[in-house]
Amino acid sequence: QVQLAESGGGLVQPGGSLRLSCVVSGSTSDAYSIAWLRKAPGKEHRGVSYIRRSDGKTFYRDSVKGRFTMSRGFSQNVVYLQMDSLKPEDTALYFCAMGIMADDDYGTWSSATHWHYWGQGTQVTVSS
């Protein structure tokens, strides 16, 4: 059974940094495409970034490009989301998810309905 566990969230001031971790068990992180999605209060889940299984290419939503970096750890069972220059609008519950995803289109990969396995989420709050 595939299980995902996120950690690393917290309260940070605007301009600060956090690194989120996602530990995968019951599979390896490269068995599927893997993503970070977030859910802000009153809003739907939306994709932040994802690594496509077929070629290892990484995709980002426009608002985090140049600030966030998604990567795999030395262990194939861990992925990270390095978040720099954080803004109040980045405040959300961040989820790690895995699924059979290969699309380039943000409107497709950012939708929660395309991701099959989910963690419980880790809260990120950006506030002064």
Structure description:
- By secondary structure, this protein is mainly β.
- It is 3% helix and 45% strand.
- It has one helix spanning 106-109, and strands at 3-7, 10-12, 18-25, 33-39, 46-51, 58-60, 68-72, 78-83, 92-99, 117-118, 122-126.
- Strands 2, 4, 5, 6, 9, 10 and 11 form a 7-stranded mixed sheet that branches. Strands 1-3-8-7 form a 4-stranded antiparallel sheet, with no helix packed on it.
Helix content: under 10%
Low-confidence stretches: none
Q: Whole-number average pLDDT?
A: 94
Question: What is the N-to-C succession of helices and strands?
Answer: EEEEEEEEEHEE
Gap between N and C termini: 40 Å
Strand content: over 45%
Largest sheet: 7 strands, mixed
The general outline is globular
Rg to the nearest angstrom? 13 Å
The number of strands is: 11
Give the class from helix and strand content and strand pairing.
mainly beta
Number of helices: 1
What is the subunit arrangement here? single chain
Describe the structure in brief:
The protein has 128 residues and is mainly beta. It has one helix at 106-109, and strands at residues 3-7, 10-12, 18-25, 33-39, 46-51, 58-60, 68-72, 78-83, 92-99, 117-118, 122-126.
